Amino acid sequence: MLNRFSTVTDITQTLQSQGFSTFLPQVDAPGLVYNGPSTVSNLKNQAGNDSLLQTHCISKCPPNDSHDQLGSTSHMFVPEVPSPSVCFPSTSLQCYIHTYPLRFPSQLHIPGQLKQYYLLNAASLLPVLALKVRDGEKILDLCSAPGGKALVIMQCATPELLCCNEPDPHRQKRLAKTLESFLPQSVTNRVILSAQDGRYFGHSEVGKYDKVLVDAPCSNDRSWLYSQNNQQGEQRLKERAKLPALQAQLLKSALSAVRPGGVVVYSTCTLSSSENYSVVKTVLKECPEAEPEDLWEELAVSTSKYFTFFNSGGHTLHDWPLLQQNIMSCNHHRLGILVVPQPGKTWGPMFLSRIKKKQ
Length: 359
Hints:
- By secondary structure, this protein is of the alpha/beta class.
- It has a domain at 122-316 and 331-357: 3-Layer(aba) Sandwich (Rossmann fold), CATH 3.40.50.150.
- The protein contains 13 helices and twelve strands.
- Strand 3, helix 4 and strand 4 (161-165) form a beta-alpha-beta unit.
- Helix 7 (198-204) packs parallel to helix 10 and helix 10 packs across helix 11 (277-286).
- The longest helix has 15 residues, at 243-257.
- Belongs to the class I-like SAM-binding methyltransferase superfamily. RsmB/NOP family.
- The active site is at 269 (nucleophile).
- Residues 44-358 form the SAM-dependent MTase RsmB/NOP-type domain.
- Keywords: Methyltransferase, RNA-binding, S-adenosyl-L-methionine, Transferase.
């Protein structure tokens, strides 16, 4: 993922020379491309020697006056050049992928210097694309660490506020370092870190956000299951069976935090139906104000060239004729869509569901 806040001409040329191709349709949007120096000197000066977004940027989310403030295997690159498309009307994400698994070296964190690119699984883009973020919105990333999807949000648009919530101190430190590595000071005044328990976040911030992303901890999330704190890691492993209940609590909290008319995107990186469709079903039954939105036409069909999607009949779908034949009569996908890794399309797994809060 190329960083629109950094100079990326050399990286773009390198990608093209190595056979990478763009993933999403783009148009020129020069007003949203950052041409300034690839440094975060102001942030470094504020943060001191540590230079991380730490206590001075960690606040209750949103702050009292936030509504008045502006505040692996295969890899994919997402250069940040916004451009409209049929799926993403207000912004677009320029992406590069390769037909074969290739490794690019990860860039080291250097305080005061912005990284040029971020490596991620291509399927990780889909929850943010489903969110359809726009300039000026208030966005909550409820389970934000390690920060990849928060970066994609900031590459897609310039929100009025992006609250990145992460209660675990070790994971929050990693999140802060990620944000510092990619965002200049001119943008970080729109981003705040929160350390609230995500299950109860919506109780204190009712209806404050336009859109909420719940990239929930799941049974395939090694970064959540294996904490740097050994005691906490062992406890999490014991609690794997309780994950669906935790996920449902997080989703209900998100629905409380989003305003009427706003949307919540729930996502996991597991194939487990009990953590995907069943969680969505449970929450829809308990929350009459929640209404699922069908992502099949919007995302599955439009990206079927790159991803393999799973349907309730147990089939994996590789091209549009099969999608049309096997899926159009099935309502199960209204609850969400699931990317499954396949030979030649190794992205995923990734489940996502978009839920609108009724007016």
